[in-house]
Design goal:
By secondary structure, the protein is mainly alpha-helical. It contains 8 helices and 2 strands, in the order αααααβααβα. InterPro entries: CALM/Myosin/TropC-like, EF-hand-dom_pair, EF_hand_dom.
């Protein structure tokens, strides 16, 4: 499975895996949940239980890489977020008022602070009184954070 990921990604996966699976194996649903969510994925409990069951209730790092490959092909977070915006866009214009977007980011799910939203808006060139093309916004917001070291 290593051929499906960049070396840098595998290093990140390995570090997270051994941080939470100290014995070298994932033995519980809780361990798998924490590890995958720490890596930015959002699998459902039933998906996680299925992955663990497929591996006989015990998962080595090689098994975990296989699961990461399978799940990363299933999960497409930017598309899911855009689809959620589209569901609420009754006019079908692809736009959302910046004030409404700010409210959503600060009050729904993992609520962001005012400073965090300000940073995201600055990065995406969004002003408080503007209309935001949500597809463009999601591309910027879901882009990987660059490494500067």
């Amino acid at each position: 499975m290593a051929r499906y990921f960049k070396e840098q990604d595998i290093d990140e996966f390995r570090e997270c895996f051994y941080l939470f699976a100290r014995s070298g194996h994932i033995k519980s649903l809780d361990e798998l949940t924490v590890i995958m969510r720490s890596l930015g994925l959002a699998p459902t409990i039933s998906e996680l239980a299925g992955y663990l069951k497929q591996k006989g209730g015990k998962m080595s790092f090689a098994d975990f890489l296989e699961v990461m490959h399978i799940h990363s092909r299933v999960e497409n977070l930017p598309k899911e977020v855009v689809d959620a915006f589209k569901a609420g866009d009754l006019a079908g214009k692809g736009l959302i008022p910046a004030k409404q977007l700010r409210h959503m980011l600060q009050n729904w799910g993992e609520c962001l602070s005012v400073k965090e939203v300000d940073r995201i808006f600055r990065e995406a060139n969004v002003t408080n009184n503007s209309m935001v093309k949500y597809e463009d916004f999601v591309k910027i917001a879901c882009a990987p954070v660059p490494d500067y070291y």
